[in-house]
């Protein structure tokens, strides 16, 4: 039985090579879990794209190891190094966060060989099909995990349908958002609106996402070209960077959108830009539960998004935002046109979306849900009545 003097050694492992939503979840857990209960260590890729995350965690007093992913069964040297790192770290609980469905499939087996007693797996995205060996590795990992969580219902459905995970074993723990300091963000938001010349009949539309195929920027540009042909005035700011920047810049020029679409690159603070927007656009082709969606709604911004992944979990079409089929430029153009020059209706959707975030999508709720899950996996909730999980469970059970 655990005593109050003992801390649980927890390793949060994530293999992404750039900053995104998965890395943000790891950050929030590592910095918000109570230090009196958890001794947290974070495993990150050696890729330069996560150097900033590693440095910020270290600055907050979180231990970080840079461990390369073992992505081949022939990488015996990598397996041995990872096994030794696990033995040296000796976690009581390993929590794997998968950016892609094929990621880190050897780490669970290596943890078992190293004597790590408990495993939690969190899937962040619905991915494309894998090779037969990858599917077998993934199925084996999910079967042996003490708990499997998904960031949204669509990911949970995929795990049940494609990998045979029993629905009773699946828990949906959505991503979260911080409730913003609007007074602090408002001056910069006003400056941005002035910079872009945004006005009632020239709305500012914002898309903040990595410039990669998944995020659907090409569909957005086609929709904007359609709106331009119908003489709608607008300016669209694209925040983020990625491998498709040059092709997308060329597409802007080819579609005659120069001066109406601006590439801002990666921003340190995206909040003021979201607050400045007349609408936030998420044209993703596939998704988990994008953080930018939650952050936009937390600022009561009207959102037009593809009905993919966990987006429909948060947005009800016509109530808390607008949903369009992924890849449908005409539908996306129609939804944006419905906002054009009609701010009252758009703002009503934004306020309803804001209420959704306040009620169910804050980081405090996310961290509390995972702390309760860890207690269940470790057997602490059943033997202790004083912990947070025990108290929460007691309030749910009938007298």
CATH class of the largest domain: Alpha Beta
Overall morphology: elongated
Helicity range: 40-55%
Read across the widest sheet, the strand sequence of neighbours is 3-2-1-4-5-6-7
- Label the structural class: alpha/beta
Sheet bearing the most strands, described?
A: 7 strands, parallel
CATH topology of the largest domain: Rossmann fold
Written as H for each helix and E for each strand, in order along the chain, the element string is EHEHEHEHEHEHEHEHEHEHEHEHEHHHHH
Outline:
Strand 2, helix 2 (51-59) and strand 3 form a beta-alpha-beta unit.
Structure report:
There is one protein chain. The protein is an alpha/beta fold and 399 residues long. It folds into two domains: 8-176 and 362-396, 3-Layer(aba) Sandwich (Rossmann fold), CATH 3.40.50.2000; 182-360, Rossmann fold (3-Layer(aba) Sandwich), CATH 3.40.50.2000. It contains 17 helices and 13 strands. The strands form two sheets. It has a seven-stranded parallel β-sheet, sandwiched between helices. Strands 10-9-8-11-12-13 form a six-stranded parallel β-sheet, with helices on both faces.
Give the helix/strand layout.
Blueprint: E1 8-14, H1 21-32, E2 38-44, H2 51-59, E3 63-66, H3 76-89, E4 93-98, H4 107-113, E5 118-123, H5 132-144, E6 147-150, H6 153-163, E7 170-172, H7 182-196, E8 204-208, H8 217-229, E9 235-239, H9 245-254, E10 261-265, H10 271-276, E11 279-282, H11 291-298, E12 303-306, H12 311-314, E13 322-324, H13 329-339, H14 343-360, H15 363-378, H16 380-383, H17 388-396
Parallel strand pairs: 1-2, 1-4, 2-3, 4-5, 5-6, 6-7, 8-9, 8-11, 9-10, 11-12, 12-13
Helix pairs in contact: 3-4, 8-13, 11-14, 15-17
């Amino acid at each position: 039985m655990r005593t109050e003097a003992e801390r649980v050694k927890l390793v949060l492992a994530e293999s992404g090579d750039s900053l995104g939503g998965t890395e943000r979840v790891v950050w929030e857990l590592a910095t918000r879990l109570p230090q009196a209960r958890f001794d947290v260590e974070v495993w990150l890729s050696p890729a330069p794209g996560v150097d900033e995350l590693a440095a910020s965690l270290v600055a907050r007093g979180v231990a970080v190891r840079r461990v390369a992913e073992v992505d081949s069964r022939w990488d015996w040297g990598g397996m041995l190094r990872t096994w030794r790192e696990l033995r040296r770290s000796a976690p009581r609980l390993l929590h794997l966060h998968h950016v892609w469905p094929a990621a880190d499939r050897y780490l669970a087996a290596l943890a078992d060989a190293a004597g790590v007693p408990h495993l939690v797996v969190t899937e962040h995205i619905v991915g494309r099909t894998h090779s037969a060996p990858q599917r077998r590795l993934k199925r084996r990992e999910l079967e042996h995990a003490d708990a499997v969580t998904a960031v949204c219902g669509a990911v949970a459905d995929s795990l049940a349908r494609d990998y045979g995970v029993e629905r009773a074993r699946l828990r949906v723990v959505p991503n979260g958002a911080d409730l913003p300091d609007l007074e602090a963000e408002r001056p910069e938001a006003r400056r941005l609106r002035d910079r872009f010349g945004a006005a009632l009949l020239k709305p500012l539309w914002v898309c903040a996402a990595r410039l990669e195929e998944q995020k659907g920027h090409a569909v957005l540009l086609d929709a904007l070209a359609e709106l331009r042909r119908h003489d709608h005035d607008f300016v669209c700011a694209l925040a983020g960077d990625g491998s498709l920047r040059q092709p997308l810049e060329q597409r802007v020029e080819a579609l005659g959108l120069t001066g109406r679409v601006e590439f801002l690159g990666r921003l340190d603070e995206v909040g003021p830009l979201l607050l400045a927007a007349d609408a936030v656009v998420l044209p993703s082709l596939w998704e988990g539960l994008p953080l930018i969606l939650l952050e936009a709604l937390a600022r009561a911004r009207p959102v037009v998004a593809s009905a993919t992944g966990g987006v429909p979990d948060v947005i009800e079409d016509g109530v808390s935002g607008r949903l369009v089929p992924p890849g449908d430029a005409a539908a996306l153009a129609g939804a944006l046109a419905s906002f054009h020059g009609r701010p009252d209706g758009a703002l009503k959707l934004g306020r309803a979306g804001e209420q959704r975030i306040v009620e169910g999508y804050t980081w405090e709720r996310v961290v509390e849900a995972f702390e309760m899950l860890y207690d269940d996996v470790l057997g602490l909730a059943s033997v202790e009545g004083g912990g947070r999980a025990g108290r929460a469970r007691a309030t749910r059970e009938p007298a």
